[in-house]
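Chapter review: from sequence to fold.
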Amino acid sequence: MPDTIEVTKLTKTYGPVTAVNGIDFTVRQGDVFAFLGPNGAGKTTTTEILEGLRPRTSGEVRVLGLDPWSQGRELHRQVGVIPQEFRFIEKITPTEAIHYYGALFDTHPDAPKLLEQVALSDKANARFDTLSGGQKQKLGLALALVSEPKVCFLDEPTTGLDPQARRAIWQVIRTLKSEGRTVFLTTHYLEEAELLADQVAIINHGSIIARGTPEQIIEAHGGAERLSVEAPPSMAEYLKRSLPYPVQAADGRVNIEMREKGDALRILTAIEASGIPWKGFSTKTDTLEDVFVRLVGRMDEGEIKGTALA
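The token string follows.
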């Protein structure tokens, strides 16, 4: 697949402050690309440059082969955008809003179908100012789809939604991908990114510190698989003497790192031989959220600089 978004040495400065520091990444056509970072990392600045809402200081940016700033008029007819905390005309209804957007883009959207897609059919004729925050986000997503865009910029689209509504939005994103559309997603829900994204980039202090598939990032930066049991600290002390594996006790549980799956049997044998009371066990591998917290924390402490997976 060709690249829909190309970013090369992108920099954005505000006086002496560098918000985005020479970053590079590409997004392939039809991919869901999750752009992750803590508040103030440069995530929103980068996204707004890609959308043509903010000029860059230096570097090259192309979306659908177009410069978002100098060719914004042509680009904006081909992209859909849902900003954070979507706001709109207070007295308008979702159905009216969709038809209004249709007039702007010279299209003829199927309002009932769009509202059904984002699980908002029951509020089709409710005024915007009576909608909850989550319902407003759903309407924003519906409006982002009115122009049948090739690229969708979704800025935290599930913020404020209940679990059922979040899953409805996930299904919309999967449908967009199946139709060959490209989705540029920002989210603070790391499990959402791990579940939906083909590619992930993590930005902090204006630099990309990890890039790749969720699996690649977890493999490169995650910790070892762990076996965990509910047991007192004395169990940890016993296992430290009995086993050649790192052992930690925290919050009423004892966690033992494993090198391979077969270590589980050896660990459980040692636990049973201890004679110390314990309850059930589970195994755990790092998630994208675990890796994100570790990488951002290490960078904030000055341990790592911007790195990326190929």
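Two observations follow directly from the output. Residues 306-310 have pLDDT under 50 and may be disordered. The CA atoms of residues 201 and 211 lie 4 Å apart.
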